[in-house]
Amino acid sequence: MGALTVSDGAYRRSGRGFPSPQVWRDIPQPADTNGMKNIGRHIARGAAILVVVGLIPLVTATPALAARQKTIRINDASVVEGDAGQKTMTFTVSWTGSKGGAAPTVHYTTADGSATAGADYTASSGIASLSNGSCRCASISVPILGDTMTEGTETFAINLSSPVNATIGDAQGIGTIYDNEGPPSFVVTDVAGPEASGTLSFSVFLTNANGSAVSINYATADGTAIAGSDYAATSGPLTFNPGQTSKSVPVTITDNALAEDDETFTLNLSNATGGIAIADPTGTATIQNDDADPTVSVAAASVIEGDLGTTTLTLPVTLSGPSGHEIDVDYATSDATATAGSDYTATSGTLVFAAGETTKEIHVTVSGDFQDEGNETLTVTLSAPFNADLGTASATGTITNDDAGPKLAVTDAVAIEGKTGATAMTFTVATTPISLSDITVGYATADGTATAGTDYAATSGTLTIPAGQLTGTITVNVNGDATWELNETIGLTLSNPVGAKIVVGSATGTIINDDKILTVLTLKLAKGKTAIKAKGTIEAAVSGMRVKVSLLRKVGRKYVVLSTKTVGAKGLLDRNHDGILDAGYLASFNRPAAGTYRFIARYAGNTTYAPSKRTLSFRL
Predict the structure, then answer these.
(1) pTM value?
(2) CA 505, CA 484: separation in Å to the nearest integer?
(3) 333: which DSSP letter?
(4) Are 214 and 273 in contact (CB under 8 A)?
(5) Which of 436, 441, 547 is nearest to 503 (CA)?
(6) For a pLDDT cut of 70, what percent of the chain falls above it?
(7) 7-44, pLDDT tens digit by residue?
């Protein structure tokens, strides 16, 4: 066979005396549907799809449908004509894709090229039913009519249409009839057979007997099949004695158990003697895969639930054996006794096995909790395998409960600091349900913002909750002081339980500050001709503070209040750069007569800031 060229979805072979372009245009050309399989496979990977308008119909496809389509192709065929009676030309129709689903069928019909139905061959049409296993193929036989006319090489076509359970990848096969009248020439025909047959034999013909011995050389060459692994390379001469018109070249092929695409190699003719032309220098051998696709199965698995966060349930998915193809299979989870959203996260997708791979995993995220709910289950189901058959299509994932028996939980605690001595802070540890035996659990404090030794007394030990009792308590002594500070915290942690399980093992103790922020007043006198002023600062200060200032005169041994004013403290600043804000105040009074006087400034305080007082005596 000659080199392949492609036009309108039909394979055209050069070097065989094909009819003129006009004749080809007269042969009906079915629409090319090549590429449907690839559309689905790209959908499965989320890739963009270019739909060629007029060639590929735009349809809604899913990985389970489009990616799993079977694709049908037909090969070319040839035969040397004969002088009388008829010979048979056999076309092979085959398909590729997943073996899942029903076997495909396709309609076929012959069409004239340079050969004419009724004179050169018998027109044929019908439905080819392709096997769903073994070679995945069917044969179409066309009778070739012998004659004694010298007419040259002639061709006709077989066109495929109306596929069922498949799409058409190659819609046309070319039949070549070599004339056995006129000058002889060498041709080699194609051959196809199942891998297990062990041998494929090429037929090399002289189209007409020669009066003297002639010879021609032959040699195999790799196509998709590789010499040494798929077939045994061979080469040599063939000698045709006078009157001989055919020779056979057997090639040993290798049988293996690997599901793979059909593979091809060629037999090439060269160096013909006796001036004999080579009409067809190349024959193609097709090694038809006859190995079953592997099965894909999912197996059961389990995981311990856990209390907090998530764990991963891993289910293995395996092939029954390696494949020469990429294998895809869809998967999805579904509820059994476990509920998606609360017990686990529903998941679905597609597993892709590269050629040769046999194991994959499905990961399901499981949510931890403290509920004693028994073991729970979910189901993982495989579907829509590509290049594989389903084995065990569903499996159970078990979420193993780890929450049985009594559970311990410690709660937060609060204590008011106090001014002196120690105050008890009490943490409560509760158990549910009530235990029929003693429960023990270790505990220890740890600094938060409070400091052990200064703010509280560090403690650790073992708490015992007697049988039948719901709670136990842990006491931490808090140290009192008179210094204002923020509320402070300590931590308490449970550990090493015996007879129960810790579900809440840490708590926070808060020391409530009951001291007020110290305030300090300053006070100065400013004299004027008509007025005197009391001015100063208050520290620590916040917006809105007010200072009460009284002017008093000494009368005898006592001071008598002359006037009192309440003024706001303003201008929040850190005037002395000690990191504490202060504010200024100013109270003005009419200047009294000469005598001994006193200013008294007071801040009354509030729930946060302590009261303060400042006195200044002076003479006028």
Answers:
(1) 0.52
(2) 32
(3) E
(4) yes
(5) 441
(6) 88
(7) 333 333 333 333 333 333 333 333 333 333 333 333 33
